[in-house]
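Cross-posting from the chemistry board since nobody answered there.

I work mostly on the small-molecule side, so proteins are not my area. We synthesized fe (ii) ion and want a rough idea of how it might sit in this target. Sequence and SMILES are below. Is it possible to get a predicted 3D structure of the two together?
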Amino acid sequence: MPYTTATSSLSSQGYCLLQQHFSPSQLSALKREAEQLIERHYNRENLAAHSVYPSDSTETRVSHAMMISSGPSPFPKVAHDNCPTVDKLLRDHNELLQEISGSAVDPGARCMLNYQNYFSGSKPVGEHFDGEYMRAQKAEDGIEFKLLEGILPRYVGVLVIANQNRGKGTELVDNASKAVHRPRMDPGDLLLFDNLRLRHRVPTMEQPRTTIGLRNFDHQAVHFAASETDFLADDYREIPEGWVSNSVDCRARFAAFMRDEWPQMQADYQHYF
Ligand SMILES: [Fe+2]
């Protein structure tokens, strides 16, 4: 699908699917490079620096996430040199974002690369928005989190590396109409969706599935607040479970978070290592 078609599909239904965007040999290279990056960067220092995120690991799903960018950034990120296919994925994603949003993506804009392996019989992942969860509260069930304040990337990308579930995987729920989209996603397919218009979930995977998620946190990200007491501007609009503003300077808010709130939060994360 050319990027212009992708743009119209995204504005009409909130998502677009670039089928067979990567070849089988590129997918093998991406898997290898993503695993090298995890090996190279998952350590206490990077976790404390907030350039890698705590691994979410259960018997049926393992997820790793780290921040990367093409150019220099004042915010935490890890290097991805010697990973040419990951670099191509990042550049393709930025190009697509540029086409869709109609404004240039700064090479220093950070993108979260999220490598996920689902094994047979994985537990479902509930409906949610992706984001930098600056403050969250454990829900009554003790498993799900309620987001109190965060930064939400405008768009989220998902590339399928392997999938033995006949195209089953990410499901998109339209917040306004409640319509559920279940795009068939086979290896090589790249999905990009509007993270504000749609929430997403993943049902139980009966068979293995491997994906790479991409979320640009510095290009048109929005500020989320669950309550009015956390409003930082006067243009919030309601979305499920809270409010979002386009005018808040998310980079300034993130810089303040790293300076004032992260040190305590990272101390609470120590048990992950
Ligand atoms: Fe997600």
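Reply from a structural biologist on the board:
Welcome over. Reading the output above for you: The longest strand covers residues 155-163. Helices lie at 3-13, 24-41, 44-49, 84-101, 250-268. Happy to explain the token format if needed.
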